[in-house]
Amino acid sequence: MARIAGRFGRVEPRASARACLLGLLSQAERKNCWQLAEQAGHIRPGPMQRLLRYARWDADAVRDDVRTYAVDHLGSNGGVLIVDGTGFVKKGRASAGVQRQYTGTAGRIENSQVGVFLAYATSRGRALIDRRLYLPGQSWCSDPERRRAAGIPETVQFATKPRPAWEMIAAALDAVVQAPWVTGDEAYGQDPQLRAALETRGTGYVLAVACSTRVRINQGRTPVRADTVADRLPATAWQRHSAGPGAKGPRYYDWAWIHIGTDNHRHLLVRRNRTSGELAFYLCWSPTSVSLAELVRVAGVRWSVEECFQAAKSQVGLDHYQVRHWTSWHRHITLAMLALVFLAAVAADAAPKRPTHPHRPARSSEPIPLTVPEIRHLLTTVLGPPAVTAARMLHWSIWRRRHQATARLSHYRRRAADETGG
Q1: CA pair distance 372, 369, nearest whole angstrom
Q2: Among positive and negative, which fits the CA dihedral 200, 204, 210, 216?
Q3: Which Pfam family, just one, is annotated for this protein (predicted)?
Q4: What angle do CA 78, 84, 89 make, to 5 degrees?
Q5: What burial class does residue 395 get, using C-beta atoms within 10 Å of its C-beta: 0-12 exposed, 13-18 middle, 19+ buried?
Q6: What does the alpha-carbon distance between residue 64 and residue 9 come to, in Å, rounded to a whole number?
Q7: 404 — phi, psi (to 5°)?
Q8: pLDDT at res. 200
Q9: Residue 269 and residue 316: Cα distance in Å, rounded?
């Protein structure tokens, strides 16, 4: 809280922000305004709702504090910025940016919001450091009344996902985040403008692309599909490298790299699954010469963002919000990111300082380093609220059921009106 306290001009929202962070770090089943208020000992969710909607504070300024916090505790050589999106399945059509769209969270097209995020990963840890709510163009940009109801600023217009990704990357680089590499999946690797912008800034990238991507090899005039290039490779072109440690040990794949274009530092990187033979492709560029092992390391780091999403949703309630407004979404997500980077910083500072071999398991008598879930579990004992009285529990039970009754009556009236045409 010392890092962000100055972002709040009044003591009330500052106290609510502290209570909100403690709630996000607690064992509360659902970390929405109702449960966060109950966890904080409030008699109603009003203070939490005001914090996310009406209180005067700048979520982008707090986002800057989150980014600085991550760099201070996780920063080290070889840092990687990772761009990726995640979905938030929702009901109705009033939430900012919601529509039927594909989300990897559900693995199919769902009524959902999609956030584009930037993660920072180093050998010391990983955390989310920036966020943008994706605004679909078809159903939102041409509907001023709907935009106004959801609080979407007039300056926000439709842009494909690589555009906000680049804005976040540029902001991080301008803030002197030490990250010589950027990586991301096909949604970002297929965008030539994003790749060109990174090259202009002198930032290397390892970006996934589709097998149909065409590249020029041997300075040829005719581009060739990436999968065709891979099929022509001799057996000697493949080398076995680990893409980093996984839950069950090092993640070994077969890798090959092919020089493409006229730039000496531009490559097509191909990954082959040792069991299934499935191929994955990456376009790579670096301002200086690098080794295959370094490109493999950066490609493997991309999965860190998935671990960030999993930890943020399961540990600090990233997707537990029940807000519809543009401002409220960014405020909740920012506070959840702060809670997550706090846990990551504690884990990094608690990690053993002695060197360990990356491929050698620890002795069975040695515990693994403290993890984000374990740290949160320990903190709930230290930071947990005092014992709740039966009267307080009953008060919140009655409050919830009254609001549920109001909502049910509203739904019944709307359904009846639809049936009768009234």
Answers
A1: 10
A2: positive
A3: DDE_5
A4: 150
A5: middle
A6: 17
A7: -65, -35
A8: 96
A9: 36
Q: Which tokens belong to 245?
A: 């440690």
Sign of torsion over alpha carbons 166, 172, 176, 179: negative
What CATH number has the domain spanning 59-351? 3.90.350.10
Strand (E) or helix (H) holding 119: strand 108-122
Cβ contact 269:250 at 8 Å: no
User: Nearest 5°: CA angle at 298, between 80 and 255?
Assistant: 175
Distance CA 6, CA 19 (A): 16
> Could you tell me if 238 and 255 are in contact, meaning their C-beta atoms sit under 8 angstroms apart?
yes
Residue 82, Cβ neighbours under 10 Å: how many? 29
Which amino acid, residue 331? R
Task: Tell me the residue type at 141.
Answer: C
Contact between 50 and 87 (Cβ < 8 Å): no
> Among residues 49, 28, 48, 100, which one has the least CA distance to residue 317?
28
Please return the burial class of 231, using the count of CB atoms within 10 Å of its CB with bins 0-12, 13-18 and 19+. exposed
pLDDT of residue 361: 54
Q: Map tokens 């009267």 to a residue.
A: 391
DSSP of 182-225, one letter per residue? Answer: EEE-HHHHT-HHHHHHHHHHT-EEEEEE-TT-EE-BTT-SS-EE
Give pLDDT tens digits for 13-54.
Answer: 999 999 999 999 998 889 999 889 988 888 899 999 999 999
Residue type, 97: G
Q: How far apart, in whole angstroms, are the C-alpha atoms of residue 217 and residue 227?
A: 13
pLDDT of amino acid 287: 94
pTM over 0.85: yes
